[in-house]
Design a protein that fits this description.
By secondary structure, the chain is mainly alpha-helical. 76% of the residues lie in helices and 0% in strands.
Length: 148
């Protein structure tokens, strides 16, 4: 079952249970997926759907941070609940040890030895990791392993 089909089924269930916050978030996600489908002018594959969900999660995370820094806990709580719902549809993130193992292999394969090679290592690492970890986490580990 694709993400959009799963979201639509969950939307129907949430509507029947009268869970207004969940309904609002699910409608927003379905809308974003439909917008992406129209923009690409083709049916979305799993990678495209996953990218849309990850982007929505990142937007919620950024908004939550902004609201907290502006001392708006009420709005941050709304963003947090939406983020938790979105994350329930995302696959689990890789742990740091697994990421580190992949990066060490990439460094060995590319022959990288200094920070000058960071671009090559990041590109190859992100292809291997393929959306299973945040780019910032990967970058921090690459910097550590390249000795920055």
């Amino acid at each position: 079952m694709s993400y959009i089909e799963n979201l639509q089924a969950d939307l129907k269930a949430a509507m029947l249970k009268r869970e207004s916050d969940r309904v609002r978030t699910l409608r927003m996600l379905i809308s974003k997926l439909r917008e992406k489908k129209i923009a690409l002018m083709k049916d979305l594959d799993e990678v495209d759907e996953l990218a849309v969900l990850k982007k929505a999660a990142k937007e919620r995370q950024d908004s939550m941070t902004t609201y907290l820094s502006a001392n708006r806990k009420d709005l941050a709580d709304i963003e947090k609940s939406e983020l938790e719902l979105i994350q329930s549809y995302l696959p689990p993130e890789m742990d740091n040890k697994t990421i580190e193992k992949i990066i060490k292999k990439v460094i060995a394969d590319t022959g990288a030895s200094s920070m000058a090679d960071m671009g090559r290592v990041m590109g190859a690492s992100m292809k291997e990791i393929a959306g299973q970890a945040d780019g910032k986490r990967v970058q921090i580990i690459v910097r550590k392993l390249l000795g920055a």
